[in-house]
Amino acid sequence: MFCWRDGGSVKSNCAKGVSGMFRKLWQSGMIALARSRRVRNFAQHSRATSFLSGKYVSGETPAAGIKRAQELLAGNGIRSSLFYMGEYVDDWDLVTQNIDNKLDVAARLGQAGLDVHVSVDPTQIGHHLDPDVVAGHAERIAKAVQAAVGNKGGVNCLMFDMEDASLNDPTIAVHNRMQDMGLPVALTLQAYLRRTRQDLQAQIARGSRVRLVKGAFAAPPDIAFTKRADIKANSRALIGDMLSQQARENGFYPIIATHDTALQDFTIETARANGWAAGDYEFEMLLGVREDVAKALAAKGERVRLYVPFGRDWWPHAARRIGENPANAMLLMRSLFS
Predict the structure, then answer these.
(1) Do 291 and 335 reside in the same domain of the chain?
(2) Are residues 39 and 175 in the same domain?
(3) Are residues 148 and 51 in the same domain?
(4) Checking CA distances to 107, which of 148, 234, 286, 326 falls within 20 to 30 Å?
């Protein structure tokens, strides 16, 4: 471990280095646990860990997801994007199950008068089995979203989540194809990737809906920013692009997905400076993560949406949420040993 003096004491910079190393080890460890079938089977059938699913997941069924979405809207004016859990699927039966659940929840959202806002991972709908089937499956879900909306207002779309860097090009291609067909779709881009500014400019030119996230997948430094300060700086640059006058003129819709209050404040300041009113863009956050911040934003008149997962395969999602912050170590210990 190297300790250095850079505008502060040797001791404080050394502490930062140790903290950064621990954070990386913690995150990599939790990702490994998230992917472990043995741990998943234990966690999802253990009373000790059941409260974790209640914190980060709305329930097992589409009905549970709808109920949570209704509660969020009625209680705090917060909208939802529903996500049926289960990614990196390598079984055709599971692909069919994933599609059926997304079709079901789209119809239920429309019937409930909520935003028909459904998120999908390309690997959920067959990418790992046969990339050629993804567009057809996505089209089917997007058309179901469109049908469920009818003449209702709101922000309605099939949101393409972005997975690891190898899926950037195919995900963008499917999104663009659906958009060219006139279907209600949106795209997720990741601030930690070096290519994202170029990808974003292309989507601004198309007048797309784009959700900007930090990105949680491991990637080498030649394609990704690896330091938190660099990722945050790139996030600010990307938010500036999303809230530019050109983006506004093109009908672009910015979705800023962050729990970082400094970035949220920066977003609001940039929006106002460039003539964007609250409701011309939105913030998105995760169910169970800093919901007090989400409620405070909504109370100020900002449009806020929570990513609301549902389904039985909840452990990978919950484990990643715990892994995002080492402070959550106590949460995990409580679940395992209480």
Answers:
(1) no
(2) no
(3) no
(4) 286
- Residue identified by tokens 């790139």 is 234
Q: How far apart are CA 207 and CA 281, in angstroms?
A: 13
pLDDT in tens, 226-281: 999 999 999 999 999 999 999 999 999 999 999 999 999 999 999 999 999 999 99
Determine how many CB atoms are found less than 10 A away from the CB of residue 322: 22
257 strand-pairing partners: 284
- Count the alpha carbons within 13 Å of 4 in the hemisphere toward its beta carbon: 5
Asked if 284 contacts 256 with a C-beta cutoff of 8 angstroms, the reply is yes
Question: CATH no. for residue 227?
Answer: 3.20.20.220
Is residue 77 assigned to a domain? yes
Residue with tokens 């001791």: 11
- The residues, ordered by sequence, that sit 6+ positions from 61 with a Cβ below 8 Å of its Cβ are 310
Which pLDDT score, from 0 to 100, does residue 311 have? Answer: 87
Name every residue whose Cβ is closer than 8 Å to that of residue 248 and which is 6 or more positions away in sequence.
Answer: 274, 275, 276, 280
Ramachandran angles phi, psi of 270, nearest 5°: -65, -40
Query: How many structural domains is the chain composed of?
Result: 2
Range of the domain at 51: 35-56+326-338
Q: Output the pLDDT for position 211.
A: 98
Q: State whether 247 and 337 are in the same domain.
A: no
Instruction: State the CB neighbour count (10 A cutoff) for residue 106.
Output: 26
Cα–Cα distance for residue pair 157/86, rounded to 1 Å: 20
Could you tell me the pLDDT band of residue 110, with boundaries at 50, 70 and 90?
very high
